[in-house]
Amino acid sequence: MKNILFPTGFSANSWNALEYAVHFFKNEDCIFYILHIADLKDSNVNSNSFAFATETALPSINKKINLLSMRVEQLLDNKKHHLIVLYEYGNFIDLIRKTVYDKKIELIVMGTKGASGIKTAIVGSNTGDVITKVICNVLVIPEKAPIKKPKKITFATDYNIFYTHPILNTLSEQLRISKANFNVLNVSQANGHLTNAQKKNKEYLQDYLEEIFSCLHNFQSVDNKNVKEAILNFVADNKIEMLTMVAKNLNYFHQLLFDTTIEKLSFHTTIPLFVLHE
Q: Which among 240, 265, 274, 278 has a CA at the least distance from the CA of 25?
């Protein structure tokens, strides 16, 4: 049974993220936890952002929760899927961490409105905080992402990290469920020359993929001093439908996600991003 968490503010983009994930995990045994976190000031707990209030939801919020629950129940037409709705007051990140620990969450799914201008970051502040501050895999679904399983997935890496068992397990699950064509993309900033450590990590990943998914993967490398530009160009040119990265791979990760001058806004609003944690 896979435990999946959906933080929600009842927005359209959070619903789109839920629909995407339900479709992606259509044939998997899942418990979907929907979590709404309200401001602490709306509860009876005062001056303590680390307290976790458990009182009954306010009538207006309770109505939204009930409507959302009914809507989700109609979406979950698979007996393998189960729904649990949670409502909490307090600090957003603290409560996400607490829920991940208490419910043994394996994946957090979040919607994002994408970029609204050239100087807008690729993800919102809550999503960015979850990615960087919560040790759990995160699937980010932009508001305009089509509801379908990806047929082309790119895993962007610089081979500077060792691919641990949790990372490889998640990559395997992606491929098993989607049966997608899996591109391992390296953007070289040193004329294609890898260090000995990078070569060993690449060989380890190659051996693993060759053994498990020999016909579904390929390795590609491009020379470009601008990592962000190279990844975005590859995604656009090859019609990639999901981008996967490891949070620990800071060289790629921060340049792509948190540089506020990204110009190719179409990428922000259509391509799901799967962020892996160890």
A: 274
Domain that holds residue 100: 2-105
Number of structural domains found in the chain: 2
What does the pLDDT read at residue 58?
64
Q: Classify 114 in phi/psi space as left (phi over 0), alpha (psi -120 to 50) or beta.
A: left
Total residue length of the chain: 278
CA distance 118 to 198: 34
Residue with tokens 């919102």, as numbered in its chain? 124
Query: Phi and psi (nearest 5°) for 162?
Result: -85, 135
Q: What is the pTM of this model?
A: 0.86
Mark whether 101 and 160 lie in a shared domain: no
Residue 250 confidence (pLDDT): 60
CATH number at residue 206: 3.40.50.620
pLDDT per 10-residue tile (average), the chain, 278 residues: 90 87 93 86 50 53 79 81 89 94 96 52 68 92 90 93 94 94 86 86 95 88 82 89 86 59 51 90
3-state helix, strand, coil in the chain (%, to 5): 40, 25, 35
Nearest alpha carbon to residue 209 among 233, 237, 244: 244
Q: Does residue 158 sit in the same domain as residue 260? A: yes
The pLDDT score that the predictor gives to residue 262 is 42
Q: How far apart are CA 242 and CA 152, in angstroms?
A: 7
Residue 213 falls within a domain, yes or no?
A: yes
